[in-house]
Design a protein that fits this description.
CATH architecture: 2-Layer Sandwich
Largest sheet: 6 strands, mixed
CATH superfamily: Peptide methionine sulphoxide reductase MsrA
Radius of gyration: 17 Å
Strand order of the largest sheet: 7-6-1-3-2-8
Number of strands: 8
Distance between the termini: 34 Å
Structural class: alpha+beta
Shape: globular
Strand content: 5-15%
Helix content: 25-40%
CATH topology: Peptide Methionine Sulfoxide Reductase, Chain A
């Protein structure tokens, strides 16, 4: 049973089974569009955070872990941002033993599909990362869902890796809520002290490798266009890929 448009068979599945899932994904995506919930919401310009970090020492890097629905699109957006040196899909919020796609998809593990973003704070700040996250990556007012995907594994969540990140994220959510930037209260939860576990290899670089996949074309490619439109100074045409950092076989 396919619980969401992004469920994929393992890499060893037969071609016929994979084709059947692709067809099912297409039908589900089309159905979501007809129902008015499958397309990415129109992104909007939102104010930058009033509280942000100062530039770190040259040569250092920083890590942000963010969840905002299916990790395919979240990873895809951050791979197109200047200053980001790595964006890895994975799971955060639960235990190591349950950090597997089939288990996380049950919605009972505490995990959220997340992306670990490694960036150069000399080129882009954590606050700017959050600004793009709230304006382009997802709809932060949706609770335990994004578009056609439902369940706590698709929740909007920030997993700070430092105490400073916690302060910045908390202040920014409060700032956006007080300004009534969105039509509803932000549902994003801040969940510190949570480990991140990389997802299976076939989930990495999925948007870059499968731009014609129906779920990607309908839900995620518009996010890349919104990034290019709203943040032209931070947009990079060539994504930074996980596969490019792996040693040759």
């Amino acid at each position: 049973m396919i619980s969401s448009p992004e469920n994929l068979p393992s890499p060893t599945a037969s071609w016929r089974f994979r084709s059947a899932l692709l067809l099912a994904a297409f039908l589900l995506a089309v159905g979501a569009v007809l129902a008015g919930s499958g397309t990415a919401k129109e992104a909007r310009t939102i104010p930058a955070p009033t509280l942000d970090e100062t530039a770190a020492q040259k040569g250092t890097s920083e890590i942000a872990v963010l969840a905002g629905g299916c990790f395919w699109g979240v990873q895809g957006v951050f791979q197109h941002i200047k200053g980001v040196t790595s964006a890895v899909s994975g799971y955060a919020g639960g235990e190591k033993a349950t950090a597997h796609y089939e288990t996380v998809s049950s919605g009972s593990t505490g995990h959220a599909e997340s992306v670990r973003v490694t960036f150069d704070p000399q080129r882009i700040s954590y606050g700017r990362i959050l600004q793009i996250y709230f304006s382009v990556v997802h709809d932060a007012t949706e609770l335990d869902r994004q578009g056609p995907d439902t369940g706590s594994q698709y929740r909007s969540a920030i997993f700070p890796t430092t105490s400073q990140q916690t302060l910045i994220a908390d202040a920014y959510i409060d700032q956006l809520n007080r300004a009534h930037v969105f039509d509803a209260t932000i549902a994003t939860k801040i969940e510190p002290d949570r480990a991140f576990y990389p997802a299976e290899g076939y989930h990495q670089d999925f948007l870059a490798k499968n731009p014609a996949y129906p779920y990607i074309a309908i839900n995620d490619l518009p996010k890349i266009e919104n990034l290019k439109r709203l943040f032209p100074d931070f947009y990079r045409a060539d994504p930074v890929l996980v596969s490019a950092s792996l040693p040759p076989h």
